[in-house]
C-alpha cells in the first residue's frame, strides 16, 4: 500500500497538473458516478491527508480517493499515451487543456461536499506530512494502549497518519525493537525519539523517486524486503512474517539480533521469499 510520502507525491502531481484550471474532460468509471460530469468546473487544489487524497472543485465539491494496495494517479500531457494499465482498470479521468490525470485501480472514489470532508478524514491522527502534525499527541496516541503491539499501533491511522508496512518495519529497526513489542514496553528514551524519527523518514523521502532510509549508497532499506539476506549491521539473516489478524497483508521485516522484544507468535506465516520485490540492492 502506498504510504504517506508516496501519497504526498501523487497529490502534488495532481495539484500541479490541475489546480487553477477548468476541466475539459470528466469521466468517472464507477456505477455510482457514471453520469456525473464536472466539465467546466475549476479545480481549486489537491491535498494529501495521511493516505487519502482530496481534490477540490469550484461549487463546493471534493473528490476523495484512496490508493489502497494497487491504486495510482498518473498525469499525461496532450497526445501522450496512457501507460498506467489496461483501460478496464481506469476509475477516473480528469482533463484540462494541457494535462490529463488518470486514476487506475482506485479502491476508494467518492464525491462529496467539501464541507463534509471531515466525514472521511476526521478520524485520522496527526499527519506526519501535514500542517496538523503534533508529535506529542501522536506519541500519546501510540502509547494509549500499552499492551498493543508497537507495529500495529504505528499502522493505525487514528494514531498518526502516513505510516505503512515499509516505515513500520524500518522505524522499528531504527528504534532497535521488534514490531511485536508492546507499545508500553518501549523504553522511554526511544519513545521520545519516535515522532521526530518517523517524521524525518517521511519528509526525507517525499521528494525522492526511490525510498531511502539507510543513508548508504548501495542499499535503500535496512530490513524491508531483505529477507533472508543478511542484516546490514550484524549480518544475521533478516526475517519476515505477517503481523495482525490476517485480514490484511502486512509483511513485517526485522532483524532478530539488532531488535529486542517478542518475535511473532508460533504458527505465524513467514515468507522467506519477498512477495513484493522492491529495490533494496
Automatic annotation (TrEMBL):
GO biological processes: base-excision repair
Catalytic activity, as annotated: 2'-deoxyribonucleotide-(2'-deoxyribose 5'-phosphate)-2'-deoxyribonucleotide-DNA = a 3'-end 2'-deoxyribonucleotide-(2,3-dehydro-2,3-deoxyribose 5'-phosphate)-DNA + a 5'-end 5'-phospho-2'-deoxyribonucleoside-DNA + H(+)
UniProt keyword annotations, A-Z: DNA damage, DNA repair, DNA-binding, Glycosidase, Hydrolase, Lyase, Metal-binding, Multifunctional enzyme, Zinc, Zinc-finger
Top-rank lineage group of the source organism: Bacteria
Entry's Gene Ontology molecular function annotations: class I DNA-(apurinic or apyrimidinic site) endonuclease activity; damaged DNA binding; oxidized pyrimidine nucleobase lesion DNA N-glycosylase activity; zinc ion binding
Compositionally skewed regions (Basic and acidic residues) per UniProt: 271-281
InterPro entries: DNA_glyclase_Znf_dom_DNA_BS, FPG_cat, FPG_N, H2TH_FPG, Nei2_N, Ribosomal_uS13-like_H2TH, Znf_DNA_glyclase/AP_lyase
Pfam family membership, one: H2TH
Span list, region Disordered: 258-281
Domain FPG-type: 222-260
EC nos: 4.2.99.18
Domain Formamidopyrimidine-DNA glycosylase catalytic per the UniProt entry, residue ranges: 2-103
Gene3D superfamilies registered for this protein in UniProt: 1.10.8.50, MutM-like, N-terminal
Family statement drawn from the similarity comment of this UniProt entry: Belongs to the FPG family.
Name of this protein: DNA-(apurinic or apyrimidinic site) lyase
Source organism (scientific name): Streptomyces corchorusii
